[in-house]
Structure prediction request, 299 residues.
Amino acid sequence: MKCPLGQPEQTLLENELGARAKEASVTAYFQSGASYWDNVYHEHHVRGLRYQERLRTVLKLVDRCSLPVGSHVLDLGSGAGVYSVALAKRGYFVEAVDAAPAMIEHTRRHASEAQVGERVTASVGSAYRLAFRDQAFSMVLAIGVIPWLDSPEKALGELARVIKPGGYVVMTADNGRRLDVLLDPLKSPALSLARRMAKSLFRVSYRRHTRPANTVYASDHSIEEVNELLATTQLRRVHAETLGFGPFTFFDHEFLPDWLGVGAHRLLQCFGKLGCPGLRSAGWQIVILARRPALHEST
Prediction:
């Protein structure tokens, strides 16, 4: 007869089961939506423009690092392969890893079409269990990954493990202080107490009525929370910025016509890039460049 689990062991088991359940749900979400993520970088609505701006920003940071041609780079959460192909075109050897098999198929196809298939190896894998030796890569990209993780600390530990001393990580986090969240009464942190009171008094859940019950949600982070995550690893933040504005909502419903939303995004993005107070830290995503100190540097 097996002994019953003690409270700490039971809690650990429940947490592990919950993490695996979320990982499976997120994988299923991206597996079913692979075609959307393949097309979004070519669309001209607000969401598409945000992703295109993110691509440009990330690649500028990659170029800033001046890796030698032939360097080995890990594209974790490679999606449809947009970043992997761009990296391979720069002469890097890329390991593209994604949990969704459909995304890996898109990555392989795009690499072949771009005639860089010999420099891109795509495989299914988990951010928590990277199948690579220690210090295998000069750079790791984790674009759009952190918001979907149940344990970002564990994943960042894996990233730090596979980065060479002196190597870089480019990652993103969904900004909990982004402008569209601050302006929506249903999402704004400033109104969280009022929402809890309304939920208690009227026994309603806004999200339950506005989103499907099986929707998978991404997690938001502040720049301070990102710094805390990096502090648990050997990685040091070198640069951070926010980008992307909109779509703007009121009680979780978009209220601007697309042409006006596009104009608002472009105008606000311009002011944000110029360092306008308030806007420079209010974009949709935080883009972070971090570095693992070289062996001769103090940690």
